[in-house]
Structure formats: C-alpha cells, structure tokens
Amino acid sequence: MWKKSIATLAIVGGALLAVSLPAMSTAAKGKPAAKETKDGREDCYACHEEVKALKEGSKHAKLACDVCHSKLKEHLADSETKPGTVIDQALCGKCHKDQVESFFKVNYDSQARKEKGIPTGRSPMMDKLLAPYGFTIEHNEPRGHAFMVTDQFVVDRFAGGRFQYKNGWTDVDKAGNTWDILKDNGPDFKMAETAKAGNPTCIQCKTSDHILKWKFMGDKDPKAQWDRTSDVIAVAKETNHVVGCIHCHDPHGTQPRVVRDALIQGIEKGSKMFAGKDGKTDLKVISFRDGFRKIGVMQKADGRLMCAQCHVEYACGKGFEFSTGNPVGYDDQRTNHFPLTGPKELLEHYKKTQNFYDFKHAVTGARLVKLQHPEAETFAGSVHDKAGVTCKDCHMPVLKNKQGKAFTSHMVIKPKDHVKEACLRCHPKFTAEQKLYQITAIQNYSKGKMRKAEYWLGQLIDTYATAKRMGVGEDVLAKAREKHEEAHVLWEWWTAENSDGFHNPDLARDTLTHSIAASKAGVKILNDAMEPKKEAAPAK
C-alpha cells in the first residue's frame, strides 16, 4: 500500500515540480531528454524530487545513486534507516584525478605555524591589542585547504594542546584523513599557555563531514546529530576530512553551489554583495527535508560566492550584547552569522543589527569585535571585481597535466608565488618580475599603514591606562572607549584579511587611515582631560 502511495505522490510531485519550480533545475539546456535509466533511481526520486531536478540531464545523470550512497535497500524498506553517504574526496578523484591531486598538493611557499603576532608577522602588537582574547595564544596565517582541519585542531587555542601530530613535526606537511595524522592525548591533557576555545560552528567551514548531520544554521533538532551547542571535542573526533568537493559542486548534477548556512541566510535576507548589474544574485535556494538543510545552486560558477562560504567575516563564538552586556551563548543564532558588509559599516552592523560583540579589552574595557578573514567583502567593489575577475581566476589557474589536458588547479595558490599563472594571462604586456614588484609595492604600503594603525591603538590603550590612574572621569573614559571600538575594527579587518591590502588597496588605505585618526582622537580626548590634573598636581 505504501509503495502505491509513494508512486502516486511521485506523479503528483513531479507535475508540481514542473509547474512551480522551473528554476530549480540547472541541468544543461538544449539537450534532448535523457533516456529512462533502470538502475533503481526512480525509487529514490519518489521521495527526492529535488534530487531528480538537479540530476537528470546533468553531467552526472548516468551515475547511479549507489555510486555515492550505501544501504539504499534498507532505506527504501524503512525510511528511518538512513543511507550511507560517501563524503571523501577520493570518490570524486576517480573521475577528477587532476583536480583532487592538486587539492592535496602541498604548497611549500605557504609556511606552517606562521604566527601573526610576532615581530615579523602580520600583527606584531596582537597580544596587546587583542588582550585577553584567545587568539593571542596562537593565531597563524593560513595555508592550503588540505590542512584546514589539522591546522585548526593542533593550534594552541583550540583544545589545550590535546591534539598533536602522531609522528611529531615530521607530520606537519602530511595531508589526508584527520585521525590518520593526529592523535588524541585525552581529556586530562593540558599544555601550558594554551586555551580551549574551539566551537562546532567554526568546524563547519573546515569540513563537509557534517553536512547531513547539521540542521540549517546549526539549530537544535532531534534529527540533527550536531548543533551549535554540541561538545566541540565530540564533533572534532567525528571530523575526518577537510572541506570536500560537495561544498562547491552539487554531487547530484555537478552544478556550482554553496552549502554554508549563514551565507545562504544572508543572501535570503537581502544581501546584494554578490549581485550582478541587475541587482540580483544568481542563487536558487533549494530546501531539503522541510528546511532541515538548504543549498544554493547557481547557473554559472561564481568564485566570489563559492569562496565566501568561508572567506568572510563571521561570528561563531560566544559573546555579549552591546545594549545590556548580557552574555550571548551558542544557543543563540547570533553565534552563526555572516554580516556580509564592508569594514566601515561593520561596527554599526554589530551594534545595531546584531547587538553583539566578542570581548572587552583587558585595559580599556572597550567592547571589541574579533574579525575573522573577510576576503570576499574586501574584494567586493575592487578594481578586479569590477572587471569581472573572481577568486578562482587568480587562485585556481588553469594548468595542464602530463598528458597536456587542461584542468583547473584546486591547490589554491598565492598569486605572488605564481605570478605567471595568476597574473600574466590578463596582463600579458608585463613580465612576471614587473607584476611581482607591483604586488609587493601595494602590500608594503598597506602593511605600513597597518603598523601605524597598531602603533596608535597602542598609544590609545596606554594613554587610557594613564588617564584612569589619574582619576579622569567615566564620561571621558567612555568617549575614549568608543574611539577604541571604532579604531579596532578598521585596523583588525586588515590583519584578519589575508591579502595585505592587495584585494582592495584603496579600501585598505581609506579604512586604516580612519583607524589611525580614530585612535588619535581618543588619545586627544584623554590628554585634554588629563591636562588640568597635571597642572594641579603638586610640584615634586
């Protein structure tokens, strides 16, 4: 009886799909209708109409469901028995060998454990300017995607040093399954000068392993194994692969897509950051299991959107409300949020729209936002963005394999280390030496402004401490704290963003000089308030 009901639903559902969801399918247009394939897929389509819309007529149309899924017979007999789903990139590598091999290729130009907060790092004054936040424990520059899980788990701020390489430092360039590389020293293990600041939401950018076990936005649900409040160690121990092919390519139909929930939510709420000239974003949001999860499918690959699943500023940790000072915990959806806005609007967004900040500064008590890695927002509106360039054009160049066949590299290069591949395709009149010189000039200039912004933030912090000791009133201190909050966001955006200003040189200069000006204004407020007290002080 139930099989007849499913068949009836499939016929009705298919008709409704054709009438009401014409935009859902992104299969290649103009091709003749595919011949019916007798491999059992029709049984799956009876309940999974959205999968049929993606798959039929696509490049993956010939693949049977059991290529990626196991226990299908058991699932068809009892829907509560979930089928197995292969997440490992190795499966995709059977057909896309060059792409997967390049993904796991080690880029030795990108150093491991390169701490930002040291004299030669991106932010030499980080410990002072971020005190007492956990990122002061260890905050490294990123390297290739092949290491994004292991790099997160071994960092000193994640789990108290509990997770380490099985074979010590010789494993630092080893790529593969997480727990083939790392060992767990146990719950009682704690290294000196470490923190336990990991959270489940952050892991969702590093891996695709939990995509079917995590409800949209990480909300609690009996059907979800993990949510924002889950034990982060338990989530980590179930994380075996770095972000997979399925983050950006739909496995059913190969359409370009995004899966990161906070990005989809931001676009659904009206963000125009990735919109075209018509003001629209090429993203069709498809809901699965009554909204349990969603994906966004594109007609044409947009590297800006696909990379913005992770390379954005976002809130994923606990914090506090600006208005009340009350704590904001992982049960609150504000701990999984993409602002999708620029640096000059960000503080206002967190103050007014989200009412959320990350921590108070140890000296001034200023309510500070901890920036992540806002590459997508920085690139938006830049010269290259306006010219139609996307992330993959510079970071994922087209290469040729040993047989001379062209493929898109998935190693994600740093353009300055591969100028010929990244730059000269669009700038053939220049030599690699010239383009590298130009890139370096932009970065040198931007880093100079970053250092000056840090210096003046340090001056503001030191002057605040002096003013407080001298008994300057709270009304003046509050004004100085506001300047600190403003200057901090405009500075840290650029230590968190990983291009050293190259993605948008004009924006870097504009915001960093505004940071310097805000810090100087705060220093002046405090100095003006201290001057009468200095004059009134008895001579020694």
UniProtKB/TrEMBL annotation:
Compartments in which it is found: Cell envelope
**Mainly localized where?**
other
Instruction: Spell out the reaction equation it catalyses.
Output: 6 Fe(III)-[cytochrome c] + NH4(+) + 2 H2O = 6 Fe(II)-[cytochrome c] + nitrite + 8 H(+)
Please report the name of this protein according to its UniProt entry: nitrite reductase (cytochrome; ammonia-forming)
Q: Report the leader peptide range.
A: 1-25
Question: Which Pfam families does its entry note?
Answer: Cytochrom_C552 (PF02335)
Q: Which organism was this protein described from?
A: Geomobilimonas luticola
Which protein family is it in? Belongs to the cytochrome c-552 family.
InterPro entries, A to Z: Cyt_c552, Multihaem_cyt_sf
Which keywords fit this entry according to its UniProt record?
Calcium, Heme, Iron, Metal-binding, Oxidoreductase, Signal
Give the Enzyme Commission number. 1.7.2.2
